[in-house]
Amino acid sequence: WGYRRIQGALRNVGHHVAHNTVKRILETHGIEPAPKRKVSTNWSQFLKTHWSTLAATDFFSTEVWTTRGLVTIYTLFVIRLETRRITIVGSTSNPDHFFVKQAALDLVGFEDSVLADATHFILDRDTKFTEEFRSMLREGGVEPVVLPARSPNLNAHAERFVRTIKSECLSKMIFFGQRSLDRAIREFVEHHHSERNHQGLGNELITKPTMPVEGEVLRDERLGGLLSFYRRAA
How many Å separate Cα 204 from the centre of its chain? Predict the structure, then answer.
């Protein structure tokens, strides 16, 4: 709404103020009138508006020993911002256009795809995210949101997951073959969902297990004790 429309709405409920008064109050609180506000919506407001239908993506890389020597494996993942739920789209040593084309198909090509109910998809300017990849997203009803260069803070949730999986898992292991890496990633994602509390979710679990309220408290492990958590005995 503009200043005069707000002034009129106030008059309808018995408050008679000048439109300059409305303008001064809005400016004091850093609120612009509707025509300007529409143009200059900030990132926080964008996230708030689309929170439940937002997803973000990124790659992370891991060094793996193979019969060909040390090879870099690139893993593509998606995070839903509202739930923090992670989906591993795929891993490859050659993230070419064939890989990302298949990734786009997996993301939007089916009724139960991870982006089936998403409206916007945050990604950086990595050249692996080709125009074909973005076009396939649009055809699937999802609008890609390409971030400005050198702005990792705008993809903070994806960046945080990368730091977490590396610091708590991948940087502490040596991998021989991609299968061993895929297994470790799979174990960590399960841990991330059902055994690791998240401060951004009120220190709750993403997936709350059915657990008795009484009973012996047990310590369980994944990946040989690298990941640990506690539960009550059934």
Answer: 17
φ/ψ (deg, to 5) at 72: -90, 125
The CB density around residue 99, as the number of other CB atoms within 10 Å, is 19
Phi, psi of 217 (to 5 degrees): -85, 125
Which regions in the chain score pLDDT beneath 50?
39
Query: Residues 186-232: pLDDT tens digits?
Result: 999 999 999 999 988 988 999 987 777 788 888 999 999 999 988 88
- Structural domains in the chain, CATH included, are 3-40 (no CATH), 50-178 (3.30.420.10)
Do strands 69-80 and 54-66 pair parallel, antiparallel, or not at all (unpaired)?
antiparallel
Q: Are 133 and 164 in contact (CB under 8 A)?
A: no
Q: Which two tokens stand for residue 105?
A: 């198909």
Cα separations in angstroms, 217 against 205, 212, 227, 234: 17, 10, 17, 10
pTM of the complete model: 0.80
**Which amino acid type is present at position 171?**
S
